[in-house]
């Protein structure tokens, strides 16, 4: 699977200014990049859009005798770019420019692609930290390359994953903390299964889904937002194919909690049906908003071997029961320990927010996680409309 970094398609028309340190911006310009790159006097600097066709030059300028430069232009929306110094591909840094960004840069020729010291945007701090971590990881690859003849593939991959762990951990943490951040386009490249699924952490998919949904809301109409959503969907489908060809997914952890009537209902008691484990709560607005969709799909597929197992994170029994009645959650499988976020369920199933869903097959094996809205319906169509 190709990297998301290369697959994201950007359709951009830019006008640019370059040359002296402080060229005059055009009235229509809605972003600028300026700064100083010591040791790079009189060099040429390029802003390039990254697309499936490769790097497309969209802006060009020159550094003055003191290494100062400025580029400005007009973009229709958030886009994926690289800023390249001179003619070498090694002197390039990724940028996710958003309209009204006024990007500042203070670096030097030797450290340009490692420590660009970007400021002036919401994504600058994230970029600087990522670039520093990735530079350390890239340096460690020299040691791994030297060991290729003395280690097995599995041993090399374990060492590779160990060295890359700080980058992956940073990407997951930052993307979950701020899913709307434009620089998540770049961070997502570390979480995609570029080397296949054998050594890939499926928890990455949950983070990618959160970012894709946030992008659709914040960057409505953006080609990148639509492409991000499609890319995440393709990763999910490919991962499910991988699981199917390798003995299927793992069995969902057992849940045995009480219903509103005090009866213990075990998840395993529903074997023989496709089950949507739906983690929700009466106080969760997005959960309540999604409930009509779950009700509709339950009514559509309940006679085809599908049911819902609702696990509430409520702490107020009356509120829980009231929400079940109010939202018309007509399936019989409702359980809760009424421990709110002190429930062991988030740790058991590895989620940090609700609504969160886990779809399991007739044998209790996990098919997919985080399905909602159209993606949930599409999966049920694939499974049950045969």
- Return Rg in Å: 25 Å
Number of E-type strands? 15
Largest sheet: 5 strands, mixed
What is the H/E order?
Answer: HEEEEEEEEHHHHHEEEHEHEHEEH
Number of domains: 3
Return the structural class.
Answer: alpha+beta
CATH fold annotation of the largest domain: Glutaredoxin
Q: Which ranges are low-confidence, i.e. pLDDT below 50, for 5 or more consecutive residues?
A: 1-22
- Lateral strand order in the biggest sheet: 13-12-11-14-15
Discrete helix count = 10
> What is the CATH top level name of the largest domain?
Alpha Beta
The averaged pLDDT comes out at 87
Question: What is the CATH homologous superfamily assignment of the largest domain?
Answer: Glutaredoxin
What's the helical proportion of residues? 25-40%
Give the overall shape, derived from the CA principal axes. Answer: elongated
CATH architecture of the largest domain: 3-Layer(aba) Sandwich
Roughly how many Å apart are the termini? Answer: 28 Å
| SS strand fraction | 15-25%
Q: What are the defining features of this structure?
A:
386 residues; alpha+beta; Immunoglobulin-like; Glutaredoxin; five-stranded mixed sheet; four-stranded mixed sheet; 10 helices; 36% helix; 22% strand; elongated; disordered N terminus
Characterization of the model:
Helix 2 (124-146) packs antiparallel against helix 3, helix 5 (203-218) packs antiparallel against helix 6 (223-245) and helix 7 packs parallel to helix 10. Helix content is 36%, strand content 22%. The protein has a five-stranded mixed sheet with strand order 13-12-11-14-15. A four-stranded mixed sheet has the order 4-1-7-8. The chain has a four-stranded antiparallel sheet with strand order 3-2-5-6. The chain has three domains: 4-120, Immunoglobulin-like (Sandwich); 133-245; 256-384, 3-Layer(aba) Sandwich (Glutaredoxin), CATH 3.40.30. The protein is elongated. It has 386 residues and is α+β, with helices and mostly antiparallel strands. The model is unreliable at 1-22 (pLDDT under 50).
């Amino acid at each position: 699977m190709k990297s998301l970094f290369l697959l994201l398609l950007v359709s951009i028309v830019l006008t640019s200014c370059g040359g002296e340190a402080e060229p005059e911006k055009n009235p229509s310009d809605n972003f600028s990049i300026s700064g100083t790159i010591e040791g790079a006097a009189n060099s040429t600097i390029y802003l390039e859009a990254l697309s499936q066709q490769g790097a497309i030059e969209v802006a060009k300028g020159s550094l003055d005798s003191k290494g100062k430069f400025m580029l400005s232009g007009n973009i229709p929306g958030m886009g994926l770019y690289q800023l390249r110094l001179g003619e070498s591909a090694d002197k390039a840094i990724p940028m996710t420019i958003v309209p009204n960004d006024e990007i500042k840069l203070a670096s030097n020729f030797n450290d340009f692609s490692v420590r660009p010291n970007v400021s002036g945007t919401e994504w600058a701090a994230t970029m600087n930290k990522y670039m520093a971590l990735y530079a350390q990881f890239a340096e460690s690859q020299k040691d791994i390359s030297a060991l290729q003849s003395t280690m097995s593939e599995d041993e090399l991959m374990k060492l590779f994953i160990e060295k890359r762990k700080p980058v992956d951990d940073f990407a997951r943490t930052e993307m979950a903390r701020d899913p709307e951040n434009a620089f998540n386009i770049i961070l997502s490249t570390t979480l995609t299964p570029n080397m296949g699924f054998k050594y890939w952490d499926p928890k990455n998919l949950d983070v990618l889904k959160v970012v894709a949904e946030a992008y659709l809301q914040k960057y409505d109409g953006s080609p990148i937002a639509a492409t991000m959503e499609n890319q995440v969907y393709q990763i999910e489908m490919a991962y499910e194919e991988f699981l199917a060809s390798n003995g299927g997914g793992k069995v969902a952890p057992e849940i045995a909690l009480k219903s509103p009537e005090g009866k213990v209902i075990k998840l395993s008691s529903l074997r023989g049906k496709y089950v949507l484990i739906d983690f929700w709560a009466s106080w969760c607005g997005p959960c309540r908003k999604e409930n009509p969709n779950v009700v509709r799909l339950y009514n559509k597929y309940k006679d085809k071997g599908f049911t819902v197992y609702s696990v509430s994170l409520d702490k107020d029994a009356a509120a829980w029961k009231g929400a079940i009645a109010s939202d018309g959650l007509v399936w019989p499988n409702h359980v809760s320990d009424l421990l709110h976020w002190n429930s062991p369920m988030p740790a058991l199933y590895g989620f940090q927010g609700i609504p969160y869903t886990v779809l399991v097959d007739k044998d209790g094996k996990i098919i997919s996680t985080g399905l909602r809205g159209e993606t949930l319906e599409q999966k049920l169509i694939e499974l049950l409309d045969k």
